Amino acid sequence: MSDERYFVVRGPVEPGDQRGRELGFPTANLALRDQRGELGDGVWAGWAERPDGTRVAAAVSVGRRPTYYGADGYRLVEAFLLDFQGDLYGETLTVWLGSHLREQKAYGSAEELIEALAHDVQETRDWISGHPAAALPALGTPPPDGEVRRVG
Ligand SMILES: Cc1cc2nc3c(=O)[nH]c(=O)nc-3n(C[C@H](O)[C@H](O)[C@H](O)COP(=O)(O)O)c2cc1C
């Protein structure tokens, strides 16, 4: 049992701009069908679950990538999986957003964004140490792709 509450978003991993690789933080991008909803923009610590049930710690961005797209971008979920290497394209990921770390920000340079991402990763490590994957609440029937479910 867990007394924690999570937002859960699920969907197939879509190709991104490949910029994440250049920054050193490749992300698995998921479409958000729910463009308004109760899940606001921000950066979260959580877990990403693969189809085989493996759970990988993730620093997750929900928003419009304001550094690159101003306020005009479309909202999406981008998960950077910690200590993971591999190709996730086409795989369906279930992403658990557990702790809201900060708001989205438009950074002045790629270097500043990279610095912020490194800090997000450290905060995610701190959070997962107290919130192991085994303690996630049961999901039940998964939400439709791209829709946000509140769990717990
Ligand atoms: C943990 C995390 C936090 C992020 N925070 C921000 C942010 O505050 N501002 C922003 O413009 N983009 C943010 N991003 C999104 C990056 O800009 C994006 O991942 C990068 O541009 C690569 O995009 P791509 O996957 O389409 O290649 C964040 C991404 C992650 C994984």
UniProtKB/TrEMBL annotation:
<dbReference type="InterPro" id="IPR015865">
    <property type="entry name" value="Riboflavin_kinase_bac/euk"/>
</dbReference>
<dbReference type="GO" id="GO:0008531">
    <property type="term" value="F:riboflavin kinase activity"/>
</dbReference>
<keyword id="KW-0285">Flavoprotein</keyword>
<keyword id="KW-0547">Nucleotide-binding</keyword>
<feature type="region of interest" description="Disordered">
    <location>
        <begin position="133"/>
        <end position="152"/>
    </location>
</feature>
<dbReference type="Pfam" id="PF01687">
    <property type="entry name" value="Flavokinase"/>
</dbReference>
<keyword id="KW-0418">Kinase</keyword>
<dbReference type="GO" id="GO:0009231">
    <property type="term" value="P:riboflavin biosynthetic process"/>
</dbReference>
<dbReference type="InterPro" id="IPR023465">
    <property type="entry name" value="Riboflavin_kinase_dom_sf"/>
</dbReference>
<dbReference type="GO" id="GO:0005524">
    <property type="term" value="F:ATP binding"/>
</dbReference>
<keyword id="KW-0067">ATP-binding</keyword>
<protein>
    <recommendedName>
        <fullName>riboflavin kinase</fullName>
        <ecNumber>2.7.1.26</ecNumber>
    </recommendedName>
</protein>
<dbReference type="GO" id="GO:0009398">
    <property type="term" value="P:FMN biosynthetic process"/>
</dbReference>
<keyword id="KW-0288">FMN</keyword>
<keyword id="KW-0808">Transferase</keyword>
<feature type="domain" description="Riboflavin kinase">
    <location>
        <begin position="5"/>
        <end position="129"/>
    </location>
</feature>
<dbReference type="InterPro" id="IPR023468">
    <property type="entry name" value="Riboflavin_kinase"/>
</dbReference>
